[in-house]
Amino acid sequence: MTQDSTLVTGRNAEGSSVDPAELAKFEAMAAEWWDPNGKFKPLHMLNPTRLDYIISRIGAEFGRDARSLRPFEGLRLLDIGCGGGLLTEPMARLGAEVVGADAVERNISVASLHAEQQGLEIDYRATTAEALADAGERFDAVLALEIVEHVADPAAFVATCAALTKPGGVMIVSTLNRTPKSFGAAIIGAEWIMRWLPKGTHEWHRFITPEELAGMMAAAGMPAVDRRGMVFNPIRWDWSLSERDLSVNYIMTGRR
Ligand SMILES: C[S@@+](CC[C@H](N)C(=O)[O-])C[C@H]1O[C@@H](n2cnc3c(N)ncnc32)[C@H](O)[C@@H]1O
Ligand SMILES: [Mg+2]
């Protein structure tokens, strides 16, 4: 590794993005990844909306026709914190060469088995972003979906994602905003009332505002070029993208 890339990797004191208490939560839920009514129900419901965003965003950044059959052909893509592969699989179907990485080994076992059953070729690895960066791996696009609120040091993690991105490449990060409304929706609503997620899955103080995330991206040399809210409508019972409401869930693109 060059001195420069060691610098942009931006480790925390322990040199790891891993927060063991956060990983234990996902370890305990690993078997449920592909159950649409299980503990990952919110991610299953959110999937079409974030997929829409990613297809149009990557399509725009790389000049791909989003309506073609395999618009991501020739792109090398990392899904960091891929979990069971809910979004990794569609990326492979769209033609990308995909690495799916997660620090929880059970997630990688579940994801690998499922991809095999689907006949999809995905390079799944039980590892961290910093280990991939140290190994010199580089990608056209790095996806970090619903992970940044679970890592030890979000700014260092975003810097590592930047180090993993080729010049001209993008990172797409989705997370939860830290607002009174997100406490109501993500903690009281999703965990206490709907019981979609086990109590304690999310800690509100770890949520990140769009301004904070944009600041982390800019500091890592990848200014934010686009942001959208992802809004749940309880009457229509579905999610949609929003240009102005980023008060609970949102997704942001940084460009190198
Ligand atoms: C809420 S899940 C999101 C899964 C997937 N990205 C999705 O949106 O469908 C967060 C995932 O991040 C993983 N994770 C947490 N900290 C990590 C770290 N430091 N390095 C790699 N993976 C991590 C967890 O094991 C878990 O699978
Ligand atoms: Mg989360």
From TrEMBL:
It catalyses: a 3-(all-trans-polyprenyl)benzene-1,2-diol + S-adenosyl-L-methionine = a 2-methoxy-6-(all-trans-polyprenyl)phenol + S-adenosyl-L-homocysteine + H(+); a 3-demethylubiquinol + S-adenosyl-L-methionine = a ubiquinol + S-adenosyl-L-homocysteine + H(+). GO terms for biological process: methylation. GO terms for molecular function: 2-polyprenyl-6-hydroxyphenol methylase activity; 3-demethylubiquinol 3-O-methyltransferase activity; polyprenyldihydroxybenzoate methyltransferase activity. Keywords: Methyltransferase, S-adenosyl-L-methionine, Transferase, Ubiquinone biosynthesis. Its EC number is 2.1.1.222, 2.1.1.64. Gene3D superfamilies: Vaccinia Virus protein VP39. S-adenosyl-L-methionine binds at residues 50, 81, 102, 145. Pathway: Cofactor biosynthesis; ubiquinone biosynthesis. Coiled coil: none annotated. Belongs to the methyltransferase superfamily. UbiG/COQ3 family. O-methyltransferase that catalyzes the 2 O-methylation steps in the ubiquinone biosynthetic pathway. This is Ubiquinone biosynthesis O-methyltransferase. It comes from Paracoccus zhejiangensis. The lineage of its organism: Bacteria, Pseudomonadati, Pseudomonadota, Alphaproteobacteria, Rhodobacterales.
